[in-house]
Hints:
Layout: H1 4-9, E1 13-18, E2 26-28, H2 31-38, H3 49-53, E3 64-69, H4 77-83
Amino acid sequence: MTTLSEIKASGMGLMANCAGPNCGHGKPLDMDMLIERFGTDYEMVGERRISASLKCDRCGRKGAVIHSLANTMPNGYAKAKDDRSDC
Ligand SMILES: [Zn+2]
């Protein structure tokens, strides 16, 4: 079982990567927005509606590959980025 609400509750997130072979631009998806749009019980296994609805910010290509993201909350990736300014 991998519904949107379960992913959010577990502290995980979803990342979309552009399907363009020369792009690959990635961005984290807003779980609250997805739940509002697709519902808390939306099943992510084999899902196509979300990936088909995404459009790349960089190259404008429609469609994306969605990956699950391990816990993204405060001390992960986001903090590492902020720390760079201390150098
Ligand atoms: Zn792209």
